[in-house]
Design goal:
The complex is a heterotrimer.
Chain A (H helix, E strand, L loop, with lengths): L10 H13 L3 H4 L3 H22 L5 H41 L1 E6 L2 E6 L8 E4 L9 E11 L1 H4 L5 E4 L6 E2 L4 E4 L2 E5 L7 H9 L8 H30 L8 H4 L2 H11 L2 H20 L2 E3 L2 H7 L4 E5 L5 E12 L5 H12 L5 H14 L6 H4 L1 E4 L7 E6 L8 E6 L1 H10 L6 H12 L3 E7 L2 E12 L3 H10 L3 E5 L4 H11 L3 E3 L4 H13 L4 E5 L5 H6 L2 E5 L4 H6 L2 E3 L6 H39 L23 H18 L1 H6 L8 H34 L3
Helix pairs in contact in A: 1-4, 3-4, 3-9, 4-6, 4-9, 4-10, 4-23, 7-9, 9-22, 9-23, 10-22, 10-23, 11-22, 12-13, 22-23, 22-25, 23-25
Chain B lengths: L3 H30 L6 H13 L10 H24 L16 H12 L9 H4 L2 H31 L9 H27 L9 E4 L5 E4 L4 H10 L20 H25 L3 H27 L19 H14 L14 H12 L10 H20 L5 E2 L2 E2 L2 H27 L1 H4 L7 H15 L14 H29 L17 H35 L5
Antiparallel strand pairs in B: 1-2, 3-4
Chain C lengths: L1 H33 L1 H4 L3 E4 L2 E5 L36 H17 L10 H4 L9 E2 L1 H14 L4 H14 L13 E2 H10 L2
Helix pairs in contact in C: 5-6, 6-7
Classes of the chains: A alpha+beta, B mainly alpha, C mainly alpha.
C-alpha cells in the first residue's frame, strides 16, 4: 500500500487543507482551541474598529496590515490542523469507502439476506465466500478461509482465519480469497476498528488525551494571565498620559494591544496542538498499529516494564540444529549422516534445520527418499522419537535410525540391550544447561551422539533491549521453558528478567505485582488466555491474528502481528508528548523577544524629548526601525512561525532512546534556548525587510 | 566601589545560612516525624494541653476537612482580632489611653496579621494598645506562621503517601509548629535581642528632657517578644512604625545581622525538612540552590545599583531612609531578603531605595514569594512552580509528567495555574483600579514613576503576603484598607486552597518508582529549567508593569530627571 | 463542620494563652531580671534626670552640640519613620540642597566642599542615634568656636571623637559610627 510513502506535503492534501483553513473559521470549531479562538476574537475586534474608523474617514495602512496578519495567524493554525487531518484522511479514506459500500449476506434462519454493512448489529451472523468483503469486525464461528487483509495492513500475503483457536478474528473491510466462513458480528457500525482508526485522525470526533487536556489548561491559564497583562498595560500607560506628547490611544491603540496579546499568548503551540495529536495517530498507523484511544498511545510513552513472550518475539520461534556431538569412536560424518537420514522427511523446522546443518558441515546432500527404500517413523507422543528404517531389498546395509529426547532414546537403547554412554549423558546435560535442546541419535540401538538444537535469538534483539533499558524500560520474558533454558536465553537476548515455566495466569499476576509497585506495564498477546493480562496491562497490544477476545481486551491492535512492534509504539507515544513539550517551551521562550520588540514600541512616547525616543527605547535591543515596524514584525513572526513549524509538528521531535536527563538537556537547548534566540533574529530580519519594502 | 567589610558580612550571611538551614530542617523533621525522640516531658505537656482543651488532634483529615479547618481557624482569628481592636479602649493594658481602632483599619490589620502579611496601615506606637499587640498580634504572628507550616506538611504528606486519603491533622500540625518550632526559637531570640537593647516592658512611654531642653516622648512596650516572632515567622509587622529601622526594634548591627539571617532561616530549613520527608536531600539542595541563586542575584543587582551614581543627586550610596549603624550594604541585604522571604519588616525605607533596588524588591514579591518566601508558604509556592516545570519537562522527555513519583495531570495543572493566577490578578488588576480612581491616586506621596511604583509595590506586597511598603503611599484610607485587605486574602487563600486541593489529589495516586526514563528533579538541568520557568513566567507577567515603574524611573534618573 | 468551628475556637484560645500571655510575660520577667535598663529603653540620666535614650536620636540645633542626622519627623517618634521620598524626588532634592547649604554655612566650609551623606539625608527611623565620624569631624571647628575652646580643649574634643567612635561590631558587622547623645554628654564634660 502507498500510504507509508506519502511525502510530507502532498499537493492534493495541501489544496484541501487550504480550503479547510477557511471552513474551520466556523466559531463553533474555533472555540475548541481557546488560544486560537482568542486570536480570532482579537482579529475581529480590530477589524471592527478598522471599519468603524474608515466610516469616520480615517484610514491606517499599518492597522490594516496588523489585522491581516492576525487573520493569517488564525488561518495558519487552521491550516496546520487541516494538513494533519488531510494526511490522516488519506490513509483512512480508502477504508472508509470500503466500509460504506460493503454489503453482507446476513443469515436469517436458513435464509441469506443481503444487507448493507451499516445495518449489521452485534450478534448478527453473516456468510462470506471467496471474493466477498467481510462487512464488519467479527469472529469466525464456522469454517476456515484465507483472507486478504492488505486493505488495512498493507501486507499482501493472505492470512488464515478459522473458527476456534487463536486466529478466529476478522476485520471489516478485508476480503475472503478462498473458502467459506460464517462470521458472528462483534461490533456495531461506527464502533469497528476501522471507525475508531478513522475517528482518531479526524479531529471532529477526536477526544483530547489527558496530557493534551492538561496542556490546554496550562495554555489557557497563560492566555488569561496575558490578557490581564495587556488590559492593565493600557491603564498603566494612561497613568503616564500627562508625561507624553502623543495620546496613549495612538501608540497603545486597541489594535496594537491586540497584536501584543496575540504575540504573547502561546499561539505557536496552541495552533499546532491538534496537528501534533493527529499526526501522532497518523505515525502510529504508518507502523500498522491501530489504537483504540489516544490515551493508550500516550500511556505507551510511560511504560516502565515490557512483558514479552519468548517465542516469536525474542527467539525466531523454532529451534535450529547448531552442532553434532558424536560419541567416542563415532565419526562426525557418521552422526551427520544418520541425523540427516532420520530427518529427511521430518517437515518440522527442527528437522529441516538438521538436514541443512549436515549438508553445510559435511557436504552431505539430501538424498532422494524414494531411492532409499526407507520407511519413515513419524514422531508420536508415546514414543517421543522419530526416525527411519532402511531395508534395502538388494541386500544392502540395514539401518534403523532413531532420534529423540535423551530420556526416550536412553530407554529405547537400553531396552534393546545397547549401551548409553555416560559421556553422552554428560553432553546432554551440558547442552541443557546452556539453554539449548539436546536430541540423541541412535543407529541400530547404538547411541551415536547428540544434536544440539539451539533456540535462535532474533538478530538485533539484544540491541533493541539495550535501547529500551536506556529509555528506562525493563523487559520481562515470559516462557514455558524450564528455568535453565530460560536463564540462558535471557542472558543471550539481554532481557532484564524472565518468568520460566510460566502459566497464563502468571502473566496476570506479574502485571498486578508490578502495577502495585507503581510501574506502568506494556504487553503483547494474541491468545484468548492473554485477554485478562492484556486488559490488566496499561498498554495491551493485541496481534491482529489473535482472537477477538484478545483484540477487545487490548487497547491497541498490531495489524502486522509483529510482537516487537511495541518498541515503535513506545517511541510514537514519547514523540507525541515530546513534540508538545518542546513546542510549548519554544512558544513561551519566544515571548521574551516579542516583549523586547513591542514594549519599547508601545512605551517609546513616554517622557520623550523628541518623537519616539523616550527612556524605554533603551529596551529596543534589536534596534528595530520604528515602533510600527516593531509591532508588525513581531506579529508577522508570530504568524509565520506556525507555518514553519508545521513539518516539525507532523514529523514529531526527533527521538533518541537515551536517558531522561540527556533528552531534557537536548530539548531544552534546542527549543528552550533556541526559542529565546530565534525570534530575536527572525523579528530583526522581518523588520529589515519591512523597512526595505517601505511597508511601515 | 564595594567595601571589603561589606563582602565579609555578605559572605558570613550566606555561609551561616547554608550551614544552619539543614540543621533547622533536621530539627523540624525530628519534631514532626520522630516524635519518640523528643524529651518525654515535652510531649506530656503537649498532650496535657491538647487533652485539657479536648482538641481532636489525632483524627486523620482528608483535604477538604483540612482545608476547612485552616479557613475556619483563620476566619475566627480575623474576627477576634477585629473585635479587640475595635474595643481596645475598654480593654486593659492601654497605658497611653489609645482610642478604639477605626473599623476598616481594624479589618485590614486583622487580615494582615492572620494572612502572615503584616502589612501595617497603622502606626504601632500611636494606634494599638499593648493588649492588642500581645493578645492579638503576637498570637497571630505565631499561628499564621504555623498555618504555613501545617499547609506545607499537608502537601508533603500528599506527595509521599501511597494511594491514601489523609493529609494529617491540622490541629496537631498547628500546635506542634507553635510549641516545638516557633516558641523555643522565639524565646532564645528574644533574650538575645533584649541583651542588645530591644525594649520589653509594660511601663508607659518615657518622657525625657533632651540636652537642649526640649521634651521628647520615647515609645516603649513589650516589643522584644513580638519582634522575635515577627522576624522568625516571616511576619514582619513592626512593633514600632519604622519597623526594624527603629533603634528599639533593631538596636545594633548584630541584631540586624541576626534578623536578616533568621527571617529566612525557617523557610530555608523547611526545604531540608521537606527533603527528608520526600527522602531526597538532593532535591532539597536543588531547591535551596535555585532560591539562593535568585536571592544572591537580586542582592547583587540592588547593591550595585545603590553603589552607582544617582544623577539627580550626583551622589552614590544615598542615605535617605537608611540608618547609620547599618549603612548601605546592610540596608539592601535586608531589603532583598525581607522581600524574598515574605517577611516584610524593613530596616530602611524601601521607598527611598534606588529604583533598581526597588525593582528587585518588587520582583521578589511578584514572583510569588518563592525565594525562600514565607514560613511554609514559600516552599509550597515554589512547589507550584516545580509542578509546572515538571509538567513541561515531563512532556519534553516524552512521559506523563511525574513529581517524586506522583503523576501530574490536568487537575494539578489546573490548580497550579490558579495559584499562580490569583496573586498576579491582585497585583495587576488592583493596581489598575487604584490608578484610575481618585481615592487611589490621591494617596500617592511621590509623583511620576515613583508614585506608580508606590501603588504597584503596595499590591505586590499584599498579594505576596509580604507586608513591606513604599510607605509614601498613605494606605490608611477606606479604599486602600479594603483593597489591600482583599488582596491579602486572595494572595493567601488563593494559594492555600489550590495547594490543599493538589495535595488531596496527589495523596490518592500511586507512586511510580524512578527509572532511567523518569525525570530527575534533583540535577542541574532541572534547576536550570525551574529557574527559567520562574523567571519567564514572572517576567512575562510583570515586565510591562515593572518597566513602567522602577525601570523607567532608573532610566529617567540616569538622565537626571526629577519629579 | 460544627466540630471544626469548636476546635478552631479552642485551638485559638489555647494558643492565645501560650503565645499571647505566658510567652510575653515570661520574656518580660527574663528581661527585667537580666537586662533591666535595656529592657526599659536604655534611658540615659544626667545629674539624675532622664535626658533621653542611648538608642534614640534627639534634636540638636545649637552650634554648641554635634547634630543628629536630619529627621523627617523632627525627632518625635510618635510615630517613627522616614520621608519616603524617592530617588527622583524633586522635594527631596530641594530639601537636601537646603541642608547642604546650612551645613556648609554654619560649619564655615568651602562652598563646594563635600558633605557626608548622613548629614544630608534623613534617617529611616527619624531618630537615628548615630552619625559617621566623617561628619562629626566637620563640626569640630564650629563647636570649638561656639564654646570658645582653647587649644587644650580643642585637642580634647578631637580625642573625644576618636574615643567615641565605635568600630563595627566584632570587627566586621555594620559601620563605624558615633552615638550623638553620648558624644554631646561627654562634650559638656570638657572643661
Amino acid at each position: 500500500m502507498e500510504k507509508n510513502k506519502k511525502g510530507l506535503f502532498d499537493k492534493a492534501i495541501i489544496k484541501q487543507a487550504i480550503i479547510d483553513s477557511f471552513t474551520k473559521m466556523n466559531p463553533k470549531l474555533l472555540m475548541k482551541n481557546p488560544v486560537i479562538f482568542m486570536v480570532a476574537i482579537g482579529a475581529l475586534l480590530s477589524s471592527f474598529l478598522f471599519v468603524e474608523s474608515l466610516v469616520r474617514g480615517y484610514y491606517s495602512g499599518f492597522n490594516l496590515q496588523i489585522i491581516l496578519w492576525l487573520w493569517f495567524t488564525v488561518l495558519f493554525a487552521n491550516f496546520a490542523e487541516a494538513v494533519a487531518e488531510g494526511r490522516g484522511k488519506a490513509q483512512s479514506d480508502s477504508l472508509k469507502n470500503a466500509r460504506t459500500t460493503t454489503t453482507g449476506r446476513k443469515l436469517q434462519g436458513n435464509k441469506e439476506v443481503i444487507v448493507s454493512a451499516i445495518d449489521l448489529r452485534v450478534g448478527d451472523v453473516v456468510v462470506c465466500e471467496t471474493g466477498d468483503v467481510i462487512p464488519a469486525d467479527g469472529e469466525v464461528i464456522e469454517g476456515i478461509a484465507s483472507v486478504d487483509e492488505s486493505a488495512i495492513t498493507g501486507e499482501s500475503a493472505p492470512v488464515i482465519r478459522e473458527s476456534g483457536g487463536d486466529r478466529s478474528a476478522v476485520t471489516g473491510g478485508t476480503k475472503v480469497i478462498s473458502d467459506k466462513i460464517v462470521i458472528k458480528i462483534t461490533t456495531n457500525p461506527g464502533d469497528t476498528f476501522l471507525d475508531r482508526m478513522i475517528s482518531l485522525v479526524e479531529s471532529a470526533t477526536r477526544k483530547k488525551t489527558p496530557n493534551e487536556i492538561a496542556l490546554s489548561i496550562l495554555l489557557s491559564g497563560l492566555s488569561i494571565i496575558f490578557l490581564l497583562v495587556v488590559i492593565t498595560l493600557r491603564i498603566f500607560i494612561d497613568f503616564y498620559q500627562p508625561y507624553s506628547k502623543i495620546p496613549s490611544s495612538e501608540f497603545a491603540s486597541i489594535t496594537i494591544l491586540v497584536a501584543l496579546l496575540v504575540c504573547l499568548i502561546p499561539t505557536t503551540i496552541g495552533g499546532l496542538l491538534s496537528a501534533i495529536g493527529i499526526s501522532g495517530m497518523d505515525r502510529l498507523m504508518s507502523h500498522n498499529v491501530i489504537a483504540t484511544s489516544g490515551r493508550a498511545v500516550e500511556a505507551a510513552g510511560d511504560i516502565d516494564v515490557l512483558l514479552l513472550d519468548k517465542t516469536g518475539t525474542i527467539t525466531l520461534g523454532n529451534r535450529m540444529a547448531s552442532e553434532f556431538y558424536p560419541a567416542d569412536g563415532v565419526s562426525q560424518e557418521r552422526i551427520g549422516d544418520a541425523a540427516q537420514l532420520s530427518s529427511l522427511s521430518d517437515e518440522t523446522p527442527e528437522g529441516r534445520s538438521i538436514v541443512i546443518l549436515a549438508k553445510e558441515k559435511y557436504g552431505l546432500r539430501g538424498r532422494d527418499i524414494s531411492e532409499l527404500e526407507a520407511h519413515f517413523i513419524p514422531f508420536t507422543a508415546q514414543t517421543k522419537m522419530s526416525g527411519v528404517d532402511i531395508h534395502p531389498e538388494n541386500g544392502g546395509e540395514k539401518r534403523i535410525i532413531r532420534k529423540g529426547s535423551a530420556a526416550a532414546i536412553k530407554d529405547y537403547v537400553i531396552s534393546a540391550g545397547g549401551k548409553f554412554d555416560d559421556k553422552i549423558q554428560q553432553r546432554v546435560n551440558d547442552i541443557s544447561k546452556s539453554g539449548s535442546t539436546p536430541l540423541v541419535v541412535a543407529e541400530n540401538y547404538e547411541a551415536l551422539g547428540v544434536i544440539e538444537l539451539k533456540d535462535v535469538v532474533k538478530g538485533g534483539i539484544k540491541e533493541r533491549f539495550a535501547q529500551l533499558r536506556r529509555m528506562g524500560i525493563r523487559t520481562v520474558m515470559i516462557t514455558g521453558d524450564n528455568p535453565l533454558t530460560a536463564t540462558a536465553i535471557a542472558a543471550e537476548a539481554g532481557v532484564d528478567e524472565f518468568i520460566a515455566e510460566a502459566k497464563p495466569e502468571d502473566k496476570l499476576k506479574k502485571i498486578r505485582d508490578e502495577q502495585a509497585k507503581g510501574y506502568m506495564i506494556g504487553m503483547i498477546g494474541d491468545g484468548t488466555n492473554d485477554a485478562p493480562a492484556l486488559a490488566q496491562a496499561d498498554v495491551g497490544i493485541a496481534m491482529n491474528s489473535g482472537t477477538q477476545a484478545a483484540r477487545e481486551a487490548g487497547n491497541m491492535v498490531d495489524l502486522d502481528s509483529n510482537p516487537t512492534k511495541l518498541i515503535e509504539v513506545v517511541e510514537v507515544g514519547k514523540q507525541l508528548l515530546m513534540t508538545r513539550g518542546a513546542l510549548t517551551t519554544f512558544s513561551i521562550a519566544n515571548d521574551v523577544a516579542k516583549y523586547f520588540a513591542i514594549i519599547p514600541a508601545i512605551t517609546a512616547g513616554l517622557f520623550a524629548q523628541s518623537m519616539n525616543k523616550g527612556p524605554l527605547s533603551a529596551l529596543n535591543l534589536m534596534h528595530l526601525a520604528s515602533p510600527q515596524s516593531a509591532v508588525l514584525s513581531a506579529v508577522i513572526f508570530n504568524a509565520i512561525i506556525i507555518i514553519m513549524l508545521v513539518p516539525l509538528a507532523l514529523k514529531g521531535v526527533k527521538y533518541r532512546p537515551t536517558g531522561a536527563s540527556v533528552i531534557l538537556r537536548r530539548n531544552l537547548l534546542i527549543y528552550g534556548f533556541g526559542g529565546l534566540l530565534v525570534p530575536f533574529i527572525g523579528i530583526k530580519i522581518i523588520d529589515v525587510i519591512l523597512t526595505a519594502l517601505g511597508l511601515v | 566601589m564595594f567595601k571589603f567589610n561589606d563582602i565579609l558580612q555578605i559572605l558570613a550571611f550566606f555561609a551561616l545560612l547554608t550551614l544552619l538551614s539543614p540543621l533547622i530542617g533536621w530539627y523540624i523533621n525530628l519534631v514532626f516525624n520522630r516524635e519518640s525522640r523528643l524529651p518525654a516531658f515535652l510531649t506530656k505537656i503537649e498532650n496535657y494541653l491538647i487533652g485539657f482543651f479536648k482538641i481532636d488532634a489525632t483524627a486523620e483529615m482528608d483535604w477538604k476537612t483540612y482545608c476547612f479547618s485552616v479557613l475556619i481557624f483563620n476566619f475566627i482569628g480575623i474576627v477576634f482580632l477585629v473585635l479587640i481592636q475595635a474595643f481596645q479602649q475598654y480593654l486593659p493594658l492601654n497605658p497611653q489611653k489609645l482610642p478604639n481602632v477605626e473599623i476598616f483599619l481594624a479589618i485590614n490589620t486583622a487580615i494582615s496579621f492572620v494572612t502572615n502579611t503584616n502589612w501595617q496601615s497603622y502606626a504601632g506606637e500611636t494606634t494599638l494598645s499593648y493588649f492588642v499587640q500581645m493578645i492579638g498580634l503576637t498570637v497571630q504572628n505565631f499561628v499564621s506562621a504555623a498555618t504555613g507550616i501545617a499547609v506545607l506538611f499537608a502537601l508533603t504528606r500528599g506527595i509521599v503517601t501511597r494511594q491514601g486519603k489523609s493529609l494529617g491533622n491540622f490541629w496537631n500540625d498547628l500546635v506542634k509548629s507553635v510549641l516545638y518550632v516557633l516558641l523555643p526559637i522565639a524565646i532564645l531570640f528574644s533574650v538575645v535581642i533584649i541583651g542588645q537593647g530591644v525594649v520589653q516592658t509594660f511601663t508607659s512611654y518615657a518622657d525625657v528632657t533632651t540636652l537642649e531642653g526640649a521634651k521628647q516622648t520615647i515609645p516603649l512596650g513589650p516589643a522584644a517578644s513580638q519582634i522575635a516572632i515577627k522576624q522568625i515567622g516571616t511576619n514582619g509587622g513592626g512593633f514600632f512604625n519604622a519597623n526594624s529601622a527603629f533603634p528599639f526594634e533593631n538596636p545594633t548591627p548584630l541584631t540586624n545581622f541576626l534578623y536578616v539571617l533568621f527571617l529566612i532561616l525557617i523557610p530555608s530549613g523547611l526545604i531540608f525538612t521537606y527533603g527528608k520527608m520526600v527522602k531526597s536531600s538532593k532535591h532539597a539542595w536543588m531547591i535551596y540552590c535555585v532560591m539562593l541563586f535568585l536571592l544572591a542575584f537580586g542582592f547583587f543587582v540592588s547593591y550595585a545599583s545603590e553603589c552607582s551614581t544617582n544623577n539627580v543627586f550626583h551622589a552614590s550610596g544615598l542615605m535617605e531612609g537608611k540608618e547609620t549603624r547599618f549603612g548601605v550594604m546592610n540596608s539592601v541585604l535586608y531589603s532583598t531578603t525581607t522581600t524574598a522571604a515574605s517577611n516584610g519588616s524593613v530596616n530602611a525605607m524601601h521607598s527611598s531605595l534606588s529604583p533598581m533596588a526597588g525593582f528587585v524588591a518588587m520582583t521578589n514579591m511578584m514572583l510569588g514569594e518563592i525565594i525562600f518566601g514565607g514560613v511554609g508558604s514559600g516552599l509550597y509556592g515554589m512547589i507550584i512552580f516545580i509542578i509546572l516545570t515538571v509538567f513541561i519537562a515531563g512532556l519534553m522527555i516524552g512521559r506523563t509528567p511525574e513529581y517524586l513519583g506522583k503523576k501530574i495531570e490536568s487537575f494539578e495543572v489546573k490548580w497550579s495555574i490558579l495559584a499562580v493566577l490569583a496573586p498576579s490578578f491582585v497585583i495587576l488588576v488592583f493596581s489598575s483600579i487604584a490608578l484610575i480612581t481618585k481615592s487611589g491616586t490621591s494617596s500617592m506621596l511621590n509623583s511620576g514613576p515613583h508614585g506608580f511604583s508606590e501603588v504597584l509595590y503596595t499590591f505586590a506586597s499584599a498579594a505576596g503576603n509580604n507586608g513591606s511598603a513604599f510607605a509614601g503611599l498613605n494606605a490608611n484610607t477606606a479604599f486602600y484598607n479594603i483593597m489591600i485587605g482583599l488582596g491579602m486574602l486572595i494572595g493567601r487563600y488563593g494559594v492555600i486552597v489550590p495547594i490543599l486541593a493538589i495535595a488531596g489529589s496527589l495523596v490518592k495516586k500511586k507512586i511510580t518508582p524512578l527509572s532511567a526514563g523518569s525525570l530527575t528533579t534533583d540535577n542541574f538541568i532541572f534547576s536550570v529549567l525551574l529557574f527559567g520557568i520562574i523567571i519567564i513566567v514572572g517576567a512575562l507577567t510583570f515586565f510591562p508593569a515593572l518597566s513602567l515603574g522602577p525601570l523607567i524611573e532608573q532610566l529617567l534618573m540616569n538622565s537626571g530627571v526629577s519629579f | 463542620m460544627k466540630n471544626i468551628w469548636l476546635s478552631s475556637l479552642k485551638a485559638l484560645l489555647l494558643l492565645t494563652i501560650i503565645t499571647g500571655v505566658i510567652y510575653p510575660l515570661f520574656i518580660t520577667v527574663i528581661a527585667k531580671t537580666m537586662f533591666y535598663e535595656k529592657a526599659d529603653g536604655s534611658i540615659v540620666y544626667k545629674d539624675g534626670k532622664a535626658v533621653g535614650s542611648a538608642l534614640i536620636g534627639q534634636k540638636f540645633t545649637s552650634d554648641k552640640y554635634f547634630w543628629s542626622r536630619p529627621s523627617a519627623i523632627d525627632y518625635n517618634p510618635l510615630p517613627s519613620g522616614g520621608s519616603n521620598l524617592g530617588p527622583t524626588s524633586k522635594a527631596l532634592l530641594d530639601t537636601v540642597n537646603t541642608r547642604r547649604k546650612i551645613f556648609i554655612n554654619r560649619n564655615n566650609m568651602n562652598a563646594n566642599a563635600i558633605v557626608p551623606n548622613d548629614a544630608l539625608f534623613a534617617s529611616g527611623s527619624g531618630v537615628d542615634p548615630d552619625i559617621t565620624p566623617a561628619s562629626a569631624y566637620l563640626e569640630v571647628t564650629r563647636i570649638a568656636k561656639a564654646r570658645n575652646f582653647n587649644d587644650n580643649q580643642k585637642a580634647a574634643l578631637a580625642d573625644l571623637i576618636k574615643n567615641q567612635t565605635e568600630c563595627p561590631q566584632f570587627g566586621f558587622l555594620g559601620e563605624e559610627k558615633i552615638n550623638v547623645l553620648s558624644l554631646n554628654i561627654e562634650l559638656d564634660k570638657i572643661k
